[in-house]
Amino acid sequence: MMDLFDTAQTRKLFPYFCSGNRGANVYFDNAATTHKPSSVISRISDFYTQENSNIHRGVYELGMSATDQYESTRKLIHEFIGSNSAKEIVLTSGATESVNLVAQTYGKKFVKKGDIILVSPIEHHANLIPWQVIAKENGAKIKEIPISKDLTINFDELDSVLSEKVKLIAINHVSNVTGMSQDIGLLVKSCKKFKIPVFVDGAQAGSHIKINVSELGCDFYCFSGHKLFGPTGTGALFIKEEFMREMPPYKTGGQMVSKVGFQDSTWTDYPLKFEAGTPNIAGIIGLGEAIKFIQNIDFQQLASYENYLSVLMTEKLAEVPFLELYGNSKKAAPIFAFNIKNIHHYDLAALLSENGVLVRSGHLCNQSLMDFLNIDGCVRASLSIYNSEEEVYNFIQALKKVVKFLSKSV
């Protein structure tokens, strides 16, 4: 197996880092989107130039080949996240569509007036707003999962909000702000008494930790392709088969029907009943290539390397005066959110960019967490396997320089 954590060699697998001045930037915005390896880019290009065809339709060789490749990605994802069957995998445009799909199918059928959906107050907007919408439509209520000061589930208080009225719990696996993970297995066990289904947003998890939905025991799990070295506009949703059978379609059109009459129609079997229309075929095949890329990584090595980067970043950030880091050091992903006293996060990010360091600033699509922390936003630096020790030092040097300049301006 190739040593993917030889950083210089790893970077050669990603064309972005071989693209002159842009590749020389310190790219610390991986929680927003990761770069794509040559294998993924080539696979998409090859499909369009040599293999382009629609799927699940033509009986000619080209069409059947495209269908086989598309469906092979479904199988790869099933193996990648440890579901019981490939039939439990719905191919989507990303985590956002996945959350909306469950809200508009499971939610519409099973959430009634007076029921409760529990959502943590530290969720990405995509894992909050769809539940707000369905709750308002059905006359249900959104209530908070209790969270401790360290931004993890407060299991001592959790029992007090669980009841037969709770029809779903929605929580992230790994935070897009702090990189910290939640104990999904323990949450699922806590919910068993009331048979409450658990929905997990795994958008930040796939490129950092091993996922096994069977071991976690959750009922729904989703992720986006573009955050794990795959194309934008791709993703997957795991739905336990018992819910697959009961949930109605999310959207209607071609492919998801079995029989169509002028007045009525019947749906095809799952998972295709959730996949109306022509999908992003090349993108999904590219996602399959990204899964293969990740499967060639030794996750133990990945965890060790990213933990090393996390420890180094934590130590170096501690050297910066008046810096407040959010969350604790027990990170599942090397994601760091912080503010510096009397300096606006936007100014920090803007001047870091001028110094060749690319980070994110603002509320990070997580205003409820900003409210929880009593801040209006922050700076986020997020790392991946192609980032190096040298880049951490360059980032800290640039940050200190920017802080010194802005401090004089205050």
What is the mean predicted local confidence, pLDDT?
A: 94
Structural class by secondary-structure content: alpha/beta
Instruction: Specify the biggest β-sheet.
Output: 7 strands, mixed
Q: Strand fraction band?
A: 5-15%
Give the N-to-C terminal Cα separation.
52 Å
The spatial strand order of the largest sheet comes to 2-8-7-6-5-3-4
Q: What's the helical proportion of residues?
A: 25-40%
The total count of helices amounts to: 14
* Poorly predicted spans: none
3D shape: globular
User: Quick one: how many beta strands?
Assistant: 15
Give Rg in angstroms. Answer: 22 Å
From N to C, what is the helix and strand string? HEHHEHEHEHEHEHEEHEEHHEEHEEHEH
Short characterization:
With 410 residues, the chain is α/β, with parallel strands linked by helices. It is 39% helix and 15% strand.
What do you see in this structure?
The protein is α/β, with parallel strands linked by helices and 410 residues long. The chain has helices at residues 7-12, 38-51, 61-81, 95-110, 129-138, 155-158, 184-191, 213-216, 241-246, 281-295, 299-317, 345-354, 367-373, 389-409; strands at residues 26-27, 89-92, 116-119, 141-144, 166-172, 198-201, 220-224, 235-239, 257-260, 265-267, 323-325, 335-340, 357-358, 360-362, 378-382. It contains 14 helices and 15 strands. Helix 5 links the parallel strand 3 and strand 4. It has a seven-stranded mixed sheet with strand order 2-8-7-6-5-3-4, sandwiched between helices. It has a four-stranded antiparallel sheet with strand order 11-12-15-14, covered by helices on one side. The N and C termini lie far apart (52 Å).
